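Structure request: Cystathionine beta-lyase, Georhizobium profundi.
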Amino acid sequence: MCANASSPLVFRHGLNSVAPDLGWQTGDRDKDVTTNDKSHGINTRLAHMGNDPRDFFGFVNPPVVRASTVLFPNADRMERRDQQYTYGTKGTPTTDALAAAIDELEGSAGTILVPSGLAAVSIPLLGFLSAGDHVLIVDSVYFPTRHFADTMLRRLGVEVEYYDPALGADIATVMKSNTKVVLTESPGSNTFEMQDIPAIAKAAHAAGAIVMMDNTWATPLFFRPLDFGVDISIHAATKYPSGHSDVLLGTVSANERCFPQLKDTLFAMGVCAAPDDCYTILRGLRTMGVRLERHQKTALALAEGLEGKAGVARVLHPALPSFPGHDLWKRDFCGASGLFSIVLDCPDAHQHKAKAHAFLDALRIFGLGYSWGGYESLAVIANLSDRTVAKAPKEGPVIRLQIGLEDTADLMADIERGLAAAASA
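Returned structure:
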């Protein structure tokens, strides 16, 4: 795991200011908050971050606090809102526990929690863009993000422009006087183009723009955007933090300069995550490290085994030395997750759909479904028709593979079954 994934835990113990004596007396065995010790490994810290059992009668997991109304002890305190919790939309001990854990992982000044990964993209964009502003979005961005930008942002008077993921420092050539936000995603969706994030951040900041990054693929365990100059880190916690394909949630983490405005945007819009979902994500974080190790190992073994295999024109995986963005991945990232793509060998564009369908329909272990990051393997056809700069591969259709926790040999046999079916289509 990343050596740079350690930072002091930001404590937000929800009940400290109002809690009764919970039985932890002087002289009792204090629980070492292991996440304060940078010498501990990431899995040790994942097991303990985000909550302190001393806050909740010694229970290991924080309680699920479902709340709307919060009572005040008197009128004066109510008028001044002089207590930690004032209303359900402003947070609970459950949401604070997850936010604290994410802050530690990201090294951020603050984190907001929202109901989905797409909300984690749209809330900061709405918070930092106004009519007349210009936003630069990488052309390999997650498609729902593009849809949001092309519909909502344009309708609100924001000028939307997509840029080549290979620009790096040359992004300065497409910056305008009204460019307020640069939205990055590295690796890019479906085709995994790598971006030179530090160079982009430096150029954007020189022009006065805020830099945001969708870091869902790597998670903060393999790349911490704020350490590389990014202002706002976006993550679909639906994926690896959850790990079980049963909850939707997004996190947005910001540096000290941007967090107040981000927090105000969340409060103004009232888009808050449910406490049960926050609890589920916090529980998923405990095993995210060991799951990612397995995802990474299996995905890389499959990617290496598929290079040069009959029926595969290209393997799109940043950790492969043959991948065009490999050097950037090796320089900045300290791991790879379980998502990559293959390009089927089919020069005849008219046969792309038939070949792709034959491949998918032959699979027995891989499920056909969207999303990723769960324990089960999935496969989908990557739709790249929305690209304007980073064009789709010409060799054939792109199949995106989410590698789950199944045995490597079984998954390879399933892929080979799909390749044989595609060859016969």
